[in-house]
Design goal:
mainly alpha
């Protein structure tokens, strides 16, 4: 039976690794997956697991972008180090709004919106926004084409858009990418800055959940957690590479249409099965 739980964990890790980085809402997918794939663990463990599994996804970003995020290498010149320090300050500035709002309202927002219909509405609404913004930007060259050109004001405003991700179904990457593109960044800059913002945000969330859960892990719980993080790590590497390759030649419109379709499926499923 434990082997079956491992298979479920692998599936959850795959879904997490894909949906965390593509702007299609990991929450929307996880809530649907949970209807069909139930981990036979305590509710307290599952609540912690679905957050801490994201640590594997964080490691994927650090693995892929270590050279651009780590300033202390002896091989780097002073100018390169200053650029990385500047990038980290922008990241810290950008996470402040979500950190403040999240600490105050996260539980309330989850209680109000963490169910099928609000999540489905968010999926559809943001899907439409992706299509509208891509059409709007079609003949507008981006103002910011590299992270070096991203100023602190724009970084803070992108962070304000990230607070929208506190509403389940909006997608953290979706909110930040949409906000960045509205503010004039290229798709590449929007996606990469979204990846980098995830590192402190998801690390902080993982640590808080672990502290709240406390110690006393059983051997099976440790295995489940490690397998989930490992799968999320490897799948995240593939998902990030796919997204960066995809947006070199394509827009975010396909993700918008996908969100709309998934939102409609969630609404139909809720009405037909759960209502």
């Amino acid at each position: 039976m434990f082997g079956l739980e491992i298979l479920k964990t692998v599936l959850i890790g795959i879904v997490q690794g894909i949906t965390e980085w593509l702007p299609i809402s990991s929450t929307g997918h996880m809530i649907l997956l949970d209807e069909f794939v139930h981990l036979n663990m305590s509710d307290e463990f599952k609540e912690m697991f679905f957050v801490v599994i994201q640590f594997g996804s964080i490691l994927a970003v650090l693995f892929l972008y270590w050279d651009r995020l780590f300033p202390f290498s002896k091989a780097k010149e002073q100018k390169q180090r200053k650029e990385i320090y500047s990038l980290w300050i922008k990241i810290i500035v950008a996470i402040i709004p979500a950190a403040v709002i999240g600490l105050i309202f996260d539980d309330i927002l989850n209680e109000l919106f963490y169910w099928y219909i609000p999540i489905a509405i968010a999926l559809v609404a943001y899907g439409i926004l992706f299509i509208v913004i891509e059409n709007r930007n079609k003949n507008r060259p981006p103002r910011i084409t590299s992270l070096k050109k991203l100023d602190f004001k724009t970084a803070l405003l992108i962070g304000c858009f990230q607070t929208l991700a506190l509403i389940p179904g909006t997608s953290r990457s979706g909110s930040t990418i949409l906000g960045a593109m509205l503010l004039g960044t290229s798709r590449k800059v929007a996606a990469e800055f979204s990846f980098f913002l995830a590192v402190p945000v998801m690390l902080g969330a993982s640590i808080l959940k672990l502290v709240k859960y406390g110690g006393g892990f059983t051997g099976q719980e440790v295995v489940i957690l490690l397998v989930g993080m490992a799968v999320a790590f490897f799948v995240s590497i593939l998902a990030i590479r796919f997204l960066m390759g995809f947006i070199r030649k394509h827009s975010f419109k396909p993700f918008g249409w996908y969100r709309i379709i998934l939102g409609v499926i969630l609404i139909i499923y809720y009405i037909a099965v759960l209502a």
